[in-house]
């Protein structure tokens, strides 16, 4: 599959290969580490290993709960398409100015926003997500939109050999690109077709790219106060960590 993807990839084009961690009988296997040599042997160069961080998922009891997947971004050749402007994010200190030198007094940041970096916090598609379908591991459209907008130009083709519910084609269509994909399960092909049809008519409900991640502080005091604490002792919650007994391993 990878060899064929590389074969059909245009010079200057990109492959974004998204993987999680495979869990084998309680042991974590980092799939990206296993796949990297295959891409490198085919002559592709890795430009970023993007960490997609999300905040919800299974709660693990014998290891830390998994809250990220990785996207390996490879290019075919050194003269590749990359435009960060459409995916810039707000500056932390937009009012910051140069304090010395020839630009003293001028704003020091890019007025279009900052480079989003290689760790992206984007909500995953869980039951209350506006894009949720019956597929168990659907990607959020906004995740793929970032890749489409920065790594392709209008009119380019986006190919997804593991199409699922059609998210990558939807992201492509929303930004005047073309999309094509393959999916083995008929039930997902049906979902993909219907979503793509809605997207083509601009009627698909989608979480917008620049909406901030949900912040419980904005959701009201009720959610922030642990019900087992009285209103007058919220400080107790902060002290929980200090009260913990030191961690010891069993002999
Ligand atoms: C992680 S899901 C992709 C989800 C997709 N990104 C979305 O947002 O809906 C992987 C999909 O690849 C499909 N699949 C697995 N093996 C395949 C193959 N050999 N050819 C095509 N599709 C395959 C699975 O049925 C599954 O729907």
Approximate shape? globular
Strand count, sense and barrel status of the largest sheet are: 4 strands, mixed
Mean pLDDT across residues: 91
- Give me the number of helical elements: 7
Bound molecules: S-adenosylmethionine
Determine the structural class based on helices, strands and strand pairing. Answer: alpha/beta
Helix content: 25-40%
CATH architecture level-2 label of the largest domain: 3-Layer(aba) Sandwich
Strand order of the biggest β-sheet? 1-5-4-6
Description:
The protein is of the alpha/beta class and 251 residues long. It has two domains: 186 residues, Vaccinia Virus protein VP39 (Rossmann fold, 3-Layer(aba) Sandwich); 32 residues, no CATH class. Helix content is 25%, strand content 17%. The chain is built from seven helices and eight strands; from the N terminus they run H-E-E-E-H-E-E-E-H-E-H-E-H-H-H. A four-stranded mixed beta sheet has the order 1-5-4-6, with helices on both faces. Helix 3 crosses helix 4 and helix 4 packs parallel to helix 5. The N and C termini lie far apart (47 Å).
């Amino acid at each position: 599959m990878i060899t064929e993807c590389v074969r059909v990839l245009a010079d200057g084009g990109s492959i974004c290969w998204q993987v999680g961690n495979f869990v084998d009988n309680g042991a974590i296997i980092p799939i990206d580490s296993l796949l990297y040599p295959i891409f490198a042997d085919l002559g592709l160069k890795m430009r970023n290993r993007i960490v997609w961080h999300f905040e919800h998922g299974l709660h693990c009891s014998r290891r830390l709960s998994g809250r990220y997947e990785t996207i390996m971004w490879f290019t075919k050749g050194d003269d590749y398409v990359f435009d960060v402007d459409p995916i810039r994010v707000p500056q932390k200190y937009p009012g910051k100015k140069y304090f010395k030198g020839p630009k003293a007094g001028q704003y020091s940041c890019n007025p279009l926003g900052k480079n989003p970096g290689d760790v992206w916090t984007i909500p995953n598609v869980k039951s209350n997500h506006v894009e949720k379908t019956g597929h168990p591991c659907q990607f959020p459209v906004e995740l793929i939109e970032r890749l489409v907008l920065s790594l392709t130009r209008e009119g380019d083709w986006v190919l997804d050999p593991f199409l699922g519910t059609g998210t990558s084609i939807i992201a492509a269509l929303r930004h005047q690109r073309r999309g094509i994909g393959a999916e083995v399960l008929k039930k997902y092909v049906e979902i993909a077709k219907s979503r793509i049809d809605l997207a083509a008519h601009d009627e698909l409900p989608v979480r917008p790219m620049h909406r901030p991640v949900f912040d419980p502080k904005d959701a009201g005091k009720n959610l922030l106060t642990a019900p087992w604490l009285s209103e007058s002792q919220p400080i107790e919650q902060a002290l929980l960590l200090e009260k913990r007994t030191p961690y010891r391993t069993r002999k």
